[in-house]
Amino acid sequence: MSAFFVALGDGRFAATPHTRGPWNPAHQHAGPPAALLGRALERCEPREGMLLARLTFEILRPVPVGEVEVAARVVRPGRSVQLLEAELTAGGERAMTVRAWRVKAADAPSAGADGAPPARPADATPPPPLEGFGYGDAVELRFAAGSWFEPGPATVWTRLRVAVVEGEEPTGLQRVLAVADSGNGVSGVLPLDRWLYINPELTVHVLREPVGEWICLDAATAIVAGGAGLAASVLSDDDGIVARGAQSLLVMPR
Description:
mainly beta, Porin, 47% strand
């Protein structure tokens, strides 16, 4: 299949092997279901001239690589500001939820959003050597700084090799959400073969709709002994910053 999901009708979708994450081949990487939930929000009573400005995803349990169902609704209607929510269920149980603020597009000039991303390398970076990591093959990566084997901050250009839903061109927001959950993975500060750093949540603040196929993910992870971990990222397209992301991390030995 050339997509993360195949639509089955009535809000149901079949996840393909492209969604498989790095921790367990039976579970999805959180990027594809986040993009699928973002798609549901985009289609929920859409309003011209409004933008999904902040999305907070709660990952309640591992999302299985199988059939899932998605539903969205407007929680707080409004002419200029709206609160939406959506949930993804699998086997009748909630696996992932999102709450999002949709706001009227700013009637103001740009200010304080400067920052061009680094040049995109010419060659793709091979995915990490993890068995069954379907998502790793479904997203093309080109590291501009850092690498899989170099702990610390990293800047990586990303491009989806597959659609989010079969037969559909992904929107700019879907492209951002499909990779925003990778901030902790590309900027890991502890060896992946010895440590887990799993995020139970993901928050993305959107400045504008991205343009084009490529999304640059500039990420850094910090872990405090006796505390928690936090991965923060800046997401850009060729013209500049489009969003900022953050992930709280559960850190523990494998």
